[in-house]
Amino acid sequence: MKKLLVSALVVTLVICITVIGECAPASSKVLKLKFSNWTTPASPPGKATAKWIEMVEQRTHGKVKVDAMYTATLLGGKNTVEGILQGVADVGMNVSSFRPERFPMLALLNYPHPYKHTMVPIKIAWDMYNKFNPNEFKGVKVISISCNGMGDNGCGFFTRFPVTGLADLKGKEIRASGTGVQALEKLGAAPVFSPVEEIYESLQKNIIKGAYTTFEIIKPFKFNEVVQYIAPFPAPAAVMFTIVKTETFNSWPADVKKVIEDMKMEHTEWAGNYAHSEGQEGLRYAVEKGVKQTTINPGDRAKMLELLKPLTDDWVKVNSAKGLPAKQWLDEFNRLLDKYNAQY
Fold first, then answer.
1. CATH number of the domain where residue 41 is located
2. Across the strands, what pairs with 228?
3. What residues make up the domain containing 263?
4. 10-residue stretch averages of pLDDT, the chain, 344 residues long
5. Could you give the angle at which helices 326-341 and 298-321 cross, rounded to 10 degrees?
6. Is residue 197 part of a domain?
7. What's the whole-model pTM score?
8. In angstroms, rounded to a whole number, what is the distance separating the alpha carbons of residues 53 and 36?
9. Which of 60, 122, 218, 229 shows the greatest Cβ crowding within 10 Å of its Cβ?
């Protein structure tokens, strides 16, 4: 009788423990993620990372906790995708312009197109990603897209000499990166590549005569102190993406996946608009500090844009030779460029 009673108590205890375990709230299990970003917390991409973390932690009510790893402390600018695939980080933000050969479709968006607003290349990127599902993102899932500050007043030239037309650029040493180097060659300038941290000293010592990039970097690096002129003009874009390994994403709880899916476009809008405002602020700040804004005359502006067209022609040839649907990508890009430019 005693043995039966003891057995019954043991069975009851096991059942209770099992039931308690099954009934324990899912929120008691915290999903800890490592988020890798190549740049600084104060930069627009850094701010976008912080915003994503804030949104996901709040909307999962603490079920997700994210450890942000900035300034390439975990993954560098050129190995983010590989690092995500290998599980070094759970989430990562990166820029397609760092590796145009790795991201051939997005590379098209990074040429100096006449984007009316930062959200234009971002929306184009989302539409093309969803439509073509390019192999460059095989194994990873895009959960947000952003860009550096674009738009009519968000990028162009800040220089030691006035830029009002094509002749002003001829032979001038101007700093650029990525597709900006190719663009300056087409425009007759003498492109010089250097890290952003070296631009100030190079301008100060007259090693370079200006820079061709987004205006969002003017204020934090105080470039207004070493240039006298600023001229808006379409500059290279840097389409950015936040990714997670598809297999990893699929392993997460359903409610967490839903939160991330539901907020991806909202976060995209926030990041794009923030970067856009920073680009506009760069111009405003420079002028406020005494830098003179010049306007490239309409005739020369049209000539300059015409000179840049062969850049995408070359892109089509190179990628078509690789067996990629480059012409189809370009046609869709041009259609979307007209569509979204008309909205801004």
1. 3.40.190.170
2. none
3. 30-148+237-279
4. 41 40 54 96 96 98 97 93 97 94 97 97 98 97 97 97 98 95 97 93 97 96 98 97 98 98 98 98 98 98 97 97 98 98 96
5. 150
6. no
7. 0.90
8. 12
9. 122
Return the structure tokens found at 293. 């804004």
Burial (0-12, 13-18, 19+ Cβ within 10 Å), 129 = middle
Cβ atoms of 84 and 244 within 8 Å: the answer is yes
- Asked, for residue 160, whether it belongs to a domain, the answer is no
Provide DSSP, 268-292. Answer: HHHHHHHHHHHHHHHHHHHHHTTPE
How far, in Å, CA of 255 to CA of 268, rounded?
20
Helices (H), 157-289: 179-186, 199-204, 218-221, 246-251, 254-288
For 30, residues 6+ apart whose C-beta sits below 8 A from its C-beta are: 62, 63, 64, 65
For the chain, what is the domain count?
1
* Segment holding 128, helix H or strand E: helix 119-132
Report residue 176: phi and psi, to 5°.
-155, 170
Amino acid at residue number 253:
P
**What is the rounded CA–CA span in Å between residue 230 and residue 216?**
13
In a domain, 193, yes or no: no
Q: Are 233 and 157 in contact (CB under 8 A)?
A: yes
DSSP helix/strand/coil, 184: helix
